[in-house]
Design a protein that fits this description.
The chain contains 8 helices and 5 strands. It is of the alpha/beta class. Strands 3-2-1-4-5 form a 5-stranded mixed beta sheet. The longest helix is centred in the last third of the chain and has 24 residues. The chain is globular and about 55 Å long. The model has no long low-confidence stretch (mean pLDDT 95).
């Protein structure tokens, strides 16, 4: 598989600096949604690079540092639980992506966005369905977004050990629902995701 096919195609069309964009944390009941944008040198080799969901937590942490070292530029952005409740998860994800692109140390010419919805970015680009499994810069972005978010959830776990955030990372596991019933909601919970529970 050519990991850089999409980047090469964009470069051939006159967009040499291509950033891959991906998000992490759209589904959980708590915590921010994160996004990252990464510009990699063409054909740069990062051993073990893959969609963040297919890589172990330990390996993701190692890849995080390698990606920062090898990237031409990277940016990480997030949107809070409060913002998610205010503007909805899709718009908050787009906002995190816009913030990630704005944080790039060097502006990109073209964006490759994982999925099938294009955020309103200041640069042109295209969506790539399952991009994190076939496109190097999107896979790199998926790792940065996931690791950044997981670190925040581990910090939340230190603050609120009774909720088990280090384990479930805010996703709606049985243990997480039990903790909410027992200890109530935190400011970091997405109220719009818990409407049914709140109505009870």
């Amino acid at each position: 598989m050519d990991w850089f096919a999409q980047e090469r195609k964009a470069a051939a069309s006159g967009y040499p600096l291509v950033c891959g964009i991906d998000e992490a944390g759209r589904g959980p009941l708590a915590g921010p949604v994160y996004a990252a944008a990464v510009i990699l040198p063409m054909d740069c080799e990062i051993e073990g690079l893959n969609d963040s969901k297919k890589v172990s937590e330990k390996k993701r942490e190692q890849l995080f540092d390698v990606i920062l070292e090898k990237a031409i530029a990277y940016g990480i952005g997030s949107a809070s639980a409060e913002e998610i409740d205010e503007i909805n998860i899709l718009q908050a994800t787009f906002l995190a992506m816009e913030r990630a692109v704005a944080a790039l140390q060097q502006p990109a010419d073209w964006a490759l966005v994982d999925g099938n919805r294009m955020p309103p970015l200041p640069i042109p680009g295209e969506t790539v369905v399952k991009g994190d499994a076939q496109c190097a810069s999107i896979a790199a972005a998926s790792i940065l977004a996931k690791v950044s978010r997981d670190r925040v959830l581990r910090e939340l776990d230190q603050q609120y050990p009774q909720y088990g955030f280090a384990k479930h990372k805010g996703y709606g596991t049985k243990a997480h629902y039990e903790a909410i019933k027992q200890f109530g909601l935190l400011p970091e919970h997405r109220k719009t995701f818990l409407k049914n529970l709140l109505e009870k």
